[in-house]
């Protein structure tokens, strides 16, 4: 479901950091999750207790986390499974902590960048609501004759209530759409493909996706893992159906003996510089080190792209505010001209 509870990036970063420290110290995983269950706040208490009980029954950590539903992202579940199989849980949790901390910082930077345009939008919505309410007062003082300046038939307390309901419904729909896109719901995948083709937004989304992809390749190729599992995991890490839709094609090529760069090249969706870097890395036999360097480079480019995306989103919000203000000005002007024309009639 869209609003099913999931851990935020900040909570995931903090959890992975604690698990990495305790795993590195050699503390038994059952004791670790006993402490996590005791200290888990609010709604997290029940799933954390579920994990603790599953570990006490002898289940693996990956399967125990999987039983909680969608609380943990697929990438984390897969990497925990790999960490258990290879005995590198502390390293996996350490890298996952860095990944989710960076993701949280990016999300926070985006919210800070669009905070002022959103306040302007909220102010414009509030002013329109005040106008609707004032029109009701004017109508009562004018012997009940309504003066519909906005032209929507929204006047007085009743009109204000309808207006508030419309704003709430629209706000919930936008919030649900944003959450659905972030969680990769099936019905939002065409939207993700459209965004990749939009001027400005497409390049920003590409850099963010490639930074996640190279990071996932660095993480998975650094452990003993079948390439047929590496490829779908890396493509899923992009968080974009623009790349995920080619998973079956890429896996089939890898299973046929093709190198990863050739499988990605056949999809036709990856930029040439990325394919060339991956090709050189695989042919030279230092794919892990190259993906580590490439991941850092794409992270820097992704941060710059995120700033650009913040500016674009802020501009769109500002444009919406400007459109509301212009609409109000024209409505008031037309009402004023209409009143003058009515007064001049015999």
Write up this protein.
This protein is mainly alpha-helical. The protein has a domain at 9-100: Receptor-associated Protein (Up-down Bundle), CATH 1.20.81.30. Helix content is 78%, strand content 0%. The protein contains 15 helices and no strands. It has helices at 9-24, 29-39, 45-56, 61-66, 74-86, 89-141, 156-182, 189-196, 201-221, 227-237, 241-244, 247-255, 260-267, 272-284, 287-344. The mean pLDDT is 80.
Quick structural gist:
With about 350 residues, this protein is mainly alpha-helical. It has a domain of about 90 residues: Receptor-associated Protein, CATH 1.20.81.30. It is about 80% helix and about 0% strand.
CATH topology (level 3) name of the domain at 9-100: Receptor-associated Protein
The number of distinct β-strands equals 0
Under CATH, the homologous superfamily of the domain at 9-100 reads: Type II secretion system (T2SS), domain F
The total of helices stands at 15
Secondary structure: helix percent: over 70%
Characterize the quaternary organization of these chains: single chain
CATH class identity of the domain at 9-100: Mainly Alpha
Query: What is the residue-mean pLDDT, rounded to a whole number?
Result: 80
- Hey, roughly how much beta strand do the residues contain? under 5%
- Tell me the overall shape: elongated
Distance between the termini: 64 Å
Q: Runs with pLDDT <50, length 5+?
A: none
Q: Which structural class fits the helix and strand makeup?
A: mainly alpha
Main β sheet profile: none
């Amino acid at each position: 479901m869209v609003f099913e509870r999931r851990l935020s990036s900040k909570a995931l970063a903090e959890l992975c950091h604690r698990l990495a420290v305790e795993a590195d110290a050699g503390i038994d995983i059952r004791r670790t999750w006993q402490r996590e269950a005791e200290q888990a706040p609010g709604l997290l208490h029940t799933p954390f207790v579920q994990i603790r009980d599953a570990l006490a029954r002898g289940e693996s950590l990956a399967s125990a986390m999987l039983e909680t539903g969608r609380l943990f992202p697929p990438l984390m579940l897969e990497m925990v499974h790999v960490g258990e199989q290879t005995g590198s849980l502390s390293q996996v949790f350490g890298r996952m902590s860095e990944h989710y901390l960076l993701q949280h910082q990016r999300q926070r930077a985006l919210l800070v960048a669009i905070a002022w345009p959103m306040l302007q939008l909220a102010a414009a919505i509030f002013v329109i609501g005040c106008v609707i309410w004032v029109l009701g007062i004017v109508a009562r003082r004018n012997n009940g004759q309504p003066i519909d300046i906005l032209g929507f038939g929204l006047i007085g307390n009743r009109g204000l209530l309808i207006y508030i309901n419309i704003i709430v419904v629209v706000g919930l729909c936008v919030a649900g759409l944003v959450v659905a896109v972030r969680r990769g719901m099936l019905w939002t995948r065409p939207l993700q493909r459209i965004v990749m083709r939009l001027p400005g937004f497409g390049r920003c989304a590409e850099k963010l996706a490639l930074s996640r992809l190279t990071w996932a390749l660095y993480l998975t190729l650094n452990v003993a893992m079948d390439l047929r599992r590496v490829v779908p995991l890396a493509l899923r890490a992009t968080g974009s159906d623009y790349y995920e839709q080619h998973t079956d094609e890429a896996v089939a090529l890898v299973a046929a003996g093709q190198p990863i760069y050739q499988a990605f090249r056949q999809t036709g969706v990856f930029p040439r510089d990325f394919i060339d870097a991956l090709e050189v890395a695989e042919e030279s036999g230092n794919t892990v080190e190259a993906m580590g360097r490439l991941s850092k480079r794409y992270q820097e480019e992704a941060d710059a792209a995120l700033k650009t995306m913040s500016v674009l989103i802020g501009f769109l919000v500002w444009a919406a505010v400007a459109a509301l203000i212009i609409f109000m000005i024209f409505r008031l002007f037309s009402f004023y001209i209409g009143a003058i024309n009515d007064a001049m009639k015999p």
